[in-house]
Amino acid sequence: MTTDQFEMTDGDYVPDPERDTALLIAGFFDHISATLQKQALPGELVSPMRKRHAELEAANAHMVVDEASRYNLRITLAVVAAYEKLLPRLGRAAATRAVRDALVEPLGEAVHASTRAMLDAAPDPFRAMVDVSKAREEYAFGKTFTFQRSADDDQRYLLDVHRCFYHEVLTANSATELTSVMCAFDGNWIEAIDPERHGFRFDRATTIGLGGATCPFHFTRTAP
């Protein structure tokens, strides 16, 4: 089986939000089902979660302004729907941990492997990673995120997110505390970057979900 499930190594990567969202949500609810079993909770809770998910999508449809926001809304509200059902049974800390793990773990290995394969194959890993970031900004995030770039040259790509759609959706649905859950998914590709191996480092000191004013996504060369 290829290690590049997301087709990132061909040098012309374009995200497929529809495919990626379907994979993410399927894995999310499968993981939640396993969590229910481990916690000795009724497995049939997944059905009400999915029903609640559909209700939330309908109620928040006005937040969709482009295709990227349609899929990002769907992902975010799946987390909300599961959290609402788990909260009274597990408490805040355990329910948050459950939805975070369900979002991060199912595709974690595949995202890490695809990112590492892309970086290892690239003649210039720094430039390849910047190109992936720019493609995701355009196709996977779209108009509901606001980006500012303080540097974009051959040595640094310093991107700051000033508006986060995930955060806005969660705030609108009284679940602001889950923004950090959405941030956690990035660890899957961040951990694939090896500064000594790939010649650049990634820095994200904070995020809006962790209380920061912005989310810095900073890529800096560490070697010529």
TrEMBL record:
<dbReference type="InterPro" id="IPR026002">
    <property type="entry name" value="ATC_hydrolase-like"/>
</dbReference>
<keyword id="KW-0378">Hydrolase</keyword>
<protein>
    <submittedName>
        <fullName>L-2-amino-thiazoline-4-carboxylic acid hydrolase</fullName>
    </submittedName>
</protein>
<dbReference type="GO" id="GO:0016787">
    <property type="term" value="F:hydrolase activity"/>
</dbReference>
<dbReference type="Pfam" id="PF14196">
    <property type="entry name" value="ATC_hydrolase"/>
</dbReference>
